[in-house]
Write a structure and sequence with these properties.
transmembrane, Membrane efflux protein, 373 residues, MFS, MFS_dom, mainly alpha, transmembrane transporter activity
């Protein structure tokens, strides 16, 4: 699982680089909140629209090259977006980066599940790689962009080139044969899987909404600077890493469905407390706890989705890691419109109630066939 942890971390670093750079596009280029949320929309479109086809392809063919190629495209698109001179070019490059992310997740999720077997903890390690990448993006990018400007995103292209080469070498050693069958077998249950996808999309709205507007909330409402906004975003993502890892262990104890419900129920009061806090330092602690709660169901959703579709692990990973995560970005222009009219605090207020819907729908999820047997 080690190589998949690191590959996922590098890949999702570029997914996290987009929200980390958005405040600097606003400050340096004068983008409106709607224009800024449009960049999040571009990333969401690129990483969500190709996912169904790519998931079907990796369930039928090995396509060992797809994960390293997708990682390379993800890094190049996100890295070149900062130096791009005009908004349409920036938007297109971020869209291209999203397409690279769309290519990485189904193949990586399929092969990581083969390596993990039936362990939720092992899959949480793979999922945590993505959370680590999200965390590292603002932690590394914020001071660099604050010093050198938004064009410094180009300095983050080399890790994509290096990791793509390492992953390509690893995949080449596996040969061109189809991946070994996953131990969990049974019938595909599309009804529960579609419901699970809705739950995952709702979680994604909260996660991407926080990623997009946390720094802007600190700058525009709490009166902190851009660096402090980056600190707040980093705190949220550090909490996300902890929540992803904790979710796998909690699910092995209380069950996957209960973990999804628990994460949604905890997130609501924490987000409300964050919204009511006027102290930027206290708010940083609260936003870290919010990251734990929002990300607790992440790996569990991936594992449960593959249990619902045991013969289609690539499709399940493509949807739960790709479409469901990225589709939340489709709602970012709505939050951007709220922020343009009423300030970034309005976007955070709207996000306070969203996790309750995910927890309610999770009550309707049936157990996987393996649990029922």
């Amino acid at each position: 699982m080690r190589q998949w942890f690191f590959a996922h971390a590098v890949d999702d670093f570029y997914q996290g680089l987009v929200p980390a750079s958005i405040p600097f596009f606003v400050l340096e280029r004068g983008y409106s909140y709607v224009a800024a949320s449009g960049l999040a929309l571009a990333a969401a479109l690129g990483s969500s629209l190709p996912q169904p086809l790519l998931g079907v392809l990796v369930d039928r063919r090995p396509l060992r090259w797809m994960a390293p190629a997708g990682l390379l495209v993800a890094g190049a698109g996100a890295g070149l977006a900062g130096p791009a001179p005009a908004y349409p070019i920036v938007w297109s490059l971020i869209l291209l980066s999203g397409i690279g992310i769309a290519a990485f997740h189904p193949a990586a999720g399929r092969d990581a599940r083969v390596a993990a077997g039936d362990s939720t903890v092992a899959m949480s390690l793979f999922a945590a790689g993505g959370s680590v990448g999200f965390f590292l993006a603002p932690a590394l990018a914020t001071p660099l962009l604050a010093t050198l400007g938004v064009g410094a995103t180009a300095l983050f292209i080399p890790p994509a080139v290096l990791m793509a080469f390492v992953l390509w070498r690893h995949q080449s050693r596996l040969g061109s044969h189809p991946p070994a069958a996953i131990a969990a077998v049974g019938r595909d249950r599309w009804g529960p899987f579609l419901l699970l996808t809705v739950v995952a999309i709702i979680r994604s709205v909260v996660f991407l909404g926080m990623n997009t507007f946390i720094a802007l909330y600190w700058i525009g409402y709490l009166g902190a600077g851009g660096v402090m906004g980056g600190v707040a975003l980093t705190a949220f993502l550090v909490g996300g890493v902890a929540g992803t890892l904790a979710g796998g262990r909690i699910a092995d104890r209380i069950g996957m469905r209960a973990t999804i419900q628990f994460g949604g129920l905890v997130a609501v009061p924490v987000l409300v407390a964050l919204r009511l806090s006027a102290d930027p330092r206290l708010a940083v602690a609260l936003v870290a706890v919010a990251g734990v709660a929002v990300n607790m169901p992440f790996a569990v959703l991936v594992k449960l989705g593959q249990d619902y579709l045991p013969t289609r692990p690539g499709t399940a990973a493509g949807v739960t890691l790709g479409i469901a995560v990225s589709a939340g970005g489709l709602f970012m222009p709505v939050l951007g419109g709220l922020a343009d009219r009423h300030g970034p605090e309005a976007a955070l207020t709207a996000l306070c109630v969203v996790p309750a819907a995910a927890a309610a729908l999770a009550l309707l999820l049936p157990p996987p066939d393996s649990a029922r047997r």
